[in-house]
Amino acid sequence: KPRIFSGIQPSGGLTLGNYLGALKRFAALQGGEAETIYCLVDLHAITVWQEPETLRRNIREAAAAFMAAGVDPQQSVLFNQSQVSAHAEMAWLFNTVARVGWMYRMTQFKDKAGKNTENVSLGLLAYPALMAADILTYQATAVPVGEDQKQHLELTRDIAAKFNHDYGVEQFPITEPLIEGVATRVMSLRDGSKKMSKSDPSDASRINLTDDADAIAQKIRKARTDADPLPGTTEGLKDRPEARNLVNIYAALADQTPDAVLSRFEGQGFGAFKPALADLAVSSLEPITKRMNDFMADPAEIDRILGEGAIRADEIATPILERTKEIMGLLRTR
Ligand code: ATP
Ligand code: MG
Predict the structure, then answer these.
(1) What's 259's domain CATH number?
(2) Where is this motif: 'HIGH' region (predicted)?
(3) Which of 68, 104, 163, 251 has the fewest CB atoms within 10 Å, measured from its CB?
């Protein structure tokens, strides 16, 4: 049976990029033929420093964002990673399968570690092995992610293939990445060459799901652009990354193609396009922010939902972990 797994780090407030590239699609994938399992990957978040009280709040807030965006904890399994110990255990097993050279090649590691790799956590380097564990502990067949996670997904496939080959088994599926739509890489509002990220030091670079209407309108108004009017087709956006980004955001929010958006705004400047985009962003995000706040008003209920999700996740993960240990020759006597 097909099984979808994906996760988001509670490493800060979620952004429009997370919503369009991940959350919105997570919700849309529910109720199909595949089982859906969604995880707040708190063990990934701590690969860079997190203030404990802030992290706890961010985990609850991310859970609220998932549900506000339409992830239904009845239809999907929704939980936080650190409550299901199979993830960390499987990650250790995969640390012995993955090669160090694979890890150093990851562009996310290079970006997040910067030049001084001596002083970053070992976890930041091992991150992709834990991500492979997240996915393969459920034998997930497909993973909806943004474009930035493509390389990690390939590494997950490499780990699965090497494990299967080394032990002569078919224990793990070769998972398919689902990178679909026009918003698989929403860019920073300040720099058209960088993706929008919740951990970007500049708050003006992103739209947060907790931003109010004024903040959203102001960030879009100040978003970097060129001075040319919009072209009639996406062909004309080729060398205009900032313009392309805003058009793609509009298209994703409106569930239209970028060409359809351009046919409406052809010849208009950003003085006209930005307010239209701001209105659309506000009307799309306002109900989500409101639902998030409603969920956040009852943290005990969020905790209950995450606890229940963890039990369901554990039931799927533990037998697969146990079988994996057995394959590797780790003696099981109880
Ligand atoms: P961080 O800066 O802490 O890494 P992030 O914003 O990159 O945070 P992640 O938790 O790393 O968020 O990623 C969660 C999901 O959101 C992944 O599937 C990722 O591909 C997707 N995603 C992240 N940023 C974007 C973006 N700018 N556009 C589209 N999808 C995105
Ligand atoms: Mg990220």
Answers:
(1) 1.10.240.10
(2) 10-18
(3) 104
Domain total of the chain = 2
Are 71 and 30 in contact by the 8 Å Cβ rule? The answer is: yes
Ligand 2 center to 227 CA (angstroms): 31
Q: Which residues of 57-68 are buried (b: 16+ CB within 10 A; e: fewer)?
A: ebbbbbbbbbbb
Instruction: Convert the pLDDT of each residue in 82-140 to its tens digit.
Output: 999 999 999 999 999 999 999 999 999 999 999 888 899 999 999 999 999 999 999 99
Residue entry with tokens 């052809």: 266
Indicate if ligand 1 lies below 6 Å from the C-beta of 10. Answer: no
- The CATH number of whichever domain residue 137 belongs to comes to 3.40.50.620
Same domain, residue pair 235 and 314: no
238 is a domain residue = yes
Give 250-294 pLDDT, tens digit per residue: 999 999 999 999 999 999 999 999 999 999 999 999 999 999 999
Among this protein's residues, is 150 annotated catalytic?
no
* CB of residue 245 inside a 6 A radius of ligand 1: no
Q: Are residues 244 and 145 in the same domain?
A: no
Q: Which domain, by its residues, includes 12? A: 3-184+298-328
Answer yes or no: do 46 and 131 share one domain.
yes
